[in-house]
Amino acid sequence: MHGVPFSWNDESSPESLVDVYLLAEQYQVCSLCERVVLFVSTLPCEPKLKFLLNAAVERRAEGLSHAAAMVMVNSICSDNEDFKFEGLRKETIVYVLTSVELPPHITETEIADALLCPLPNDLDLSCVQHKNAKTSPPPAAVVIDSSAEEGNQEGGGCLSREDVQEIFENHIDLPFIKTWLVEQKIEPLQILRPEVLAALRRVQAVCLSRGMTPGSLFVMPWRSMVPKVSVAPAKTAENEISAAYGIVDFPGLWSFYPESSFEGGVLTPQGDSVRCPLDSYLTGLAVLKLPLCTGRHRWRVRQLQPCKIFAAGVVSLPTKEFSATPERSATPEPNAYWSLHSDGSTVDMSTRIGSYKTYGGDSLLDGFDKEGGAVVVNLDMHSRSLSFANDLQFDCSNRDRKRSDLHLNGLPRDDALYPAMWMPGPGFARIEWIWSGP
Q1: How many CB atoms lie within 10 A of CB 110?
Q2: Angle subtended by helix axes 90-99 and 161-171, to nearest 10
Q3: Each residue of 183-229: pLDDT tens digit?
Q4: Entry pTM
Q5: Topology at the third CATH level for domain 254-437
Q6: Number of neighbouring beta carbons within 10 Å of residue 205
Q7: Crossing angle (nearest 10°) for helices 30-40 and 62-79
């Protein structure tokens, strides 16, 4: 725009790229905006990219901010890197947590640990007072990033204890953080105030007492739910504990097709279970509102009250939209489904209704049609395959055995897949999340 060719080299500063983008945006030169965004999407995830993200967020260059953030997120998935916030300012971290769709395997525990990673290794925890001590807490000016001064000069970020506390209490779902991290890192450093710690423990106790498994509570990809399941912020503007921490009432995690097949007390209080009270003679499909587009995922489906006809697997839906009202929990008719029945046979219905293949006979799997019977479901979105096992030990020992009754291949590449259960008659089943990875 000023007669200077658009270029980027080792001597270019992040601010200059933001200048170009904002100037093009101001004068509505859309092609140049798109070119800058496309260029940023090809950059490697290195410290300079984080400086660019800091500058873009600070100057509210939305398109540039999103492009730089997605490069960072995609590198986590493709290169199997650890999730880190090093080099990012507080405002940039808040932007990533609130405006960027993180991969399903990034749990609240990983986010919390990433915030605490830049803590200096030589921090003397003996000087940090216990939460019940009457002495004054550590000075708020303690800098979390040990290279704060250098980072500020180069466009990086530093976090004070107050910054970390604000992010924890306002942008992280604290009850979903694993207990070991709370006890070993968060408590000794007094990141959370005593009343907030008490509130998160209460939510965890309520969820577990209702029957929710620790795996579902701490490992479930809550941020990827539609709509997102969240109890943040922990404190209100009046500095009081949020009402969500007192009610402990998660939105419905399941959607049904047809809805009438699960009418009358379909949702259990813990949310990770589904009860079908009546014999519906219909499809009886319960879909977890969790679209999985990337990564590898493993969960267990357990029959708490056996259903005569029961199956577990995944479905493809024509839309990602679900009703958010508690009175209505209908899901659209699925495009296709892939499942394992409780008698040990698999079904691949990937085209039209009635076009399916059933595999039976000499199965490596035991049926899970009894009370307490369970099956482990493995979904690999990279190879687009679905496999089943009776337990984790069996799954690991038979990982290389490619049997048609254990593996379903050729799942669609462009569709999100949803964990699902089929109960066309009275039954009660629970999904127990085991693991998600890149």
Answers
A1: 18
A2: 10
A3: 999 999 888 989 999 999 999 998 888 778 888 889 989 889 888 88
A4: 0.81
A5: Jelly Rolls (2.60.120)
A6: 12
A7: 20
Paired tokens of 188: 């000794």
Give the Å distances, CA to CA, from 90 to 51, 58, 326: 13, 10, 35
Q: Are 50 and 19 in contact (CB under 8 A)?
A: no
Distance of alpha carbon 123 from alpha carbon 139, whole angstroms: 13
Residues ≥6 apart with Cβ < 8 Å to 123: none
The edge-to-edge listing of strands for the beta sheet with 273-276 is 273-276, 427-437, 296-305, 374-380, 385-389, 407-409
Domain boundaries, the chain: 82-247, 254-437
Q: How far apart are CA 183 and CA 124, in angstroms?
A: 17
- Residue found by looking up tokens 């990827």 in the block: 224
Q: Is 74 exposed, middle or buried (0-12, 13-18, 19+ CB in 10 A)?
A: middle
| Cα angle for residues 80, 82, 88 (degrees, 5° grid) | 130
Retrieve residue 361's tokens.
């006979």
Which residue bears the tokens 């590198």? 75
Length, in residues, of the chain:
438
Token pair 């009081």 in the structure block, residue: 240
Task: Report the C-alpha gap between 89 and 87 in whole angstroms.
Answer: 7
Side chain identity at residue 304, one-letter code: L
Position with higher pLDDT, 197 vs 244? 197
φ, ψ at 119 (rounded to 5°): -60, 135
